[in-house]
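Collaboration report, partner site 2.

Our partner group contributed sequences for two proteins of shared interest, and the home lab folded both. The records are reproduced in the order in which they were received, starting with the first partner submission.
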Amino acid sequence: MANREILTEWVDAFNSKNIEAIMELYADTAALCLVAKYPLIGIGRNSVKKIYRWLFSSGQRTCIPKNVFEDGDNLILEWRDTAGFYACEVIQFRCNKIISQRSYQEKLPHLKSEQLSFRSN
């Protein structure tokens, strides 16, 4: 299966909050890191699954792909959701499985929740 096909399956499973389908895409020793206000790092399928359970319990996200860049076994997905949240997934594949994923999420929603603003004079 091609990496882009795996990505399409990830997007479909993510949007339906199907943790079991998502977990089928990861290698047993996969690493997942959500880089946001407070980074979450999971190594191994059980830890990755816990992160997805937490992520899906914290609100609805709909992955709308904007750009996909591929270089060998590495893929970058830029996406947004319907609320205007933006993220970028950096995914590494081996033997048709995700072995590493770093999710970079924009800081703006975190700044808004803390009521910080920046204004030019």
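Second partner submission, folded after the first:
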Amino acid sequence: MNIQNMHSKWSFSVRWTAIAVIATAMTGCATQRGLYQWGGYDSALYTSYKNPEAVVALQTNLEKHIAAMQSAKQKVAPGLHAELGSLYLQRGDSKRALDQYRQERQAWPESRGLMDAMIRTLESRAEKQSDESTAPASLPVDKEPV
């Protein structure tokens, strides 16, 4: 067997091996599922931006999806608890918003800084409102000196 013939066979086998590796890698990437389940969040969010009346549907969708993930003992995708908390806050439900922010902070430690700030803000608002509601009514002040 001469060297040129050996080189040709080696080149042929390397070429086919490279093609097989590339094909396998492409197949693996094509069938890989996403890391998290988002439950149609992206399309529901887009719809709510275009139609503000669809925010209720977004909230309902998030509530159902999060409940399904929790009952299946799967990790809720990053940001979904925070998004649901913000939707509760927009509706004036600070208690449920705080609960969602705390769940986001616990599930995703990298969100701790933002979630802590949100929680502190809501807690200070609640404290301020509590102080105002328990403060005695002020006496009327005369505007003209006597």
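Feedback sent to the partner group on the second submission included the following. The helical segments are 3-31, 41-50, 55-71, 80-90, 94-107, 112-134. The two ends are 123 Å apart (CA to CA).
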